[in-house]
Amino acid sequence: MSLTALNKKALLEQEAHRLYGLLGSVSRSKGVKWSYADCLQAAPYTLAINQIKKEKNAVILAHSYTVPELVLGVADFSGDSYALSRKACEVSADTIVFAGVWFMAETAKILNPSKRVLIPAGKAGCTLADAITEEEVRALKAAHPGAPVLCYVNSTAGVKAESDVCVTSGNVFDIAAKLPQKELIFVPDLLMAQNIEAELKRRGVSKKIIASGGSCCVHDKYTPADVQALRRDYPGIKVLCHPESRPDVCAQADFVGSTKGMQDYVAASSDKLFGLLTEVGLVNRLEAAYPDRKFIWPFGTCAYMKKNTLANTFQALLEPRADQTVELPPDVIARAKKSLENMFEMSK
Ligand code: SF4
Q: Hey, what CATH class is 219-296 in?
């Protein structure tokens, strides 16, 4: 073996050890953790991505639901939609690589119109964002004049541009309660709309929610039977769910909140056993952060988020395709930005 080959081997082994330190407690598939051999396979990509990122003055923002080798191996920042949209406002790099789905990369572009925004997965969809068009929002506004439009952040740039204020799963209840109007239009999550009504009722606030759209194909699958099975099989377990889930699931959970809310709940808890009715990416992040705790995840994977890989992240940094580059009309950017700024203002 030549000296160069030896050096390369040593470098790869060093990188594999770094990755194993980050990923060793994370599940690769159900019941199987990342091994050193898995990390050795990922090492050439993470080394190359971290190098090219510097050369291109790029920053990688990764949603928590993307694969753990991206989140832990190469991302400069990871989090949920709200945290990433806040982070996108602060970025000074020339290029933002957004590992997530298309509407999220659009949000990064809306907040940073002068920067190049790339998404490794290309036009990765979302069953929520794709559930309503801007034309349908305009029709709702015409049918309910005076009712402000709240759009969940999981919506297209065109829908955000038609909305008065954007919301996330972390601030939706507070913003809906703060608005003075008695009638609100909420898109595009029908289950979250039901949860808003239930939460406002619990707070003694009376409002009519006019909802349209669809549901998240991950969180809408959970049923009360899943909560009951977790409680039966794991006595003492704390069950966490997302407000994109059915109201009868939320009603039985110990905690209902955003991805960040669930992370904060676990951080503040002295419990050791948690049932997570959410996407596996969050389970992986918690496994990495708390190797001494047990996280039970019955099922739930977002195929759209998993379209982001180390291989296409490297390729997008090196030579992005047109479908990996986010471009938006300036007037859409300006109007959509207003709905995001209104959210930042109302979340203070
Ligand atoms: S997890 Fe649900 S809401 Fe999130 S991107 Fe996937 S389909 Fe959309």
A: alpha beta
